Amino acid sequence: MSTKATIEGYLRDLQKKQDWTSYLSDGLVFTSYTNPIRRLSGKEAFLQSTKRFYTMIKAVEVRDLIVDGDKAVALTHYDLEPPQGPVFVSDVAEYLACAMARSCRLTFTSTAHPFQSKVGGGNLMSYDEGLASRVRAALGRSCPIQKKRMFGGVTFMVRGKMCVSVGKDRIMCRIDPAIHDAHSTPRLPERGHEGA
User: Fold this and answer.
1) Looking at residues 86-102, what average pLDDT do you find?
2) pTM of the model
3) Strand, helix or coil at 79?
């Protein structure tokens, strides 16, 4: 089977959720370039690590496929539905290599070069730039801050952890649990049924 036929078969069967793992070689190496960057070796490690992602897939569409010998790049569109939360889409550039032994099996997959993301059908990674500038200024310069595009907007990271995320019409903040607990309304104890 050719590289193109193998990759098309893999993506077709992934869409159908039928036997797509048979296209993966035992020696597969997977590199994810999302934050944090990670590299996995072996089919089983790959399947365990990506299980949540693959269970969220509702639709797959290959927007473009470029094949050169035993290597390919697929621009793939995924509709994803997490167990709790809105459906979102992820457009990914996937680099795939196919080892020609007895049959072509995918040996290297790098599915984490996101090139587009939409949440709830919204605009492409749009966010309130004015609010983001004010948040950045409020964070000050006392420690290194990274700015990353995620959650449908821009997220400010402090010491590698999400601190504040700004979207088009929302802001999401990481709150110290002790501060949250001190300022939140206490839950009332549950009552049993009282007689009349």
Assistant:
1) 73
2) 0.53
3) strand
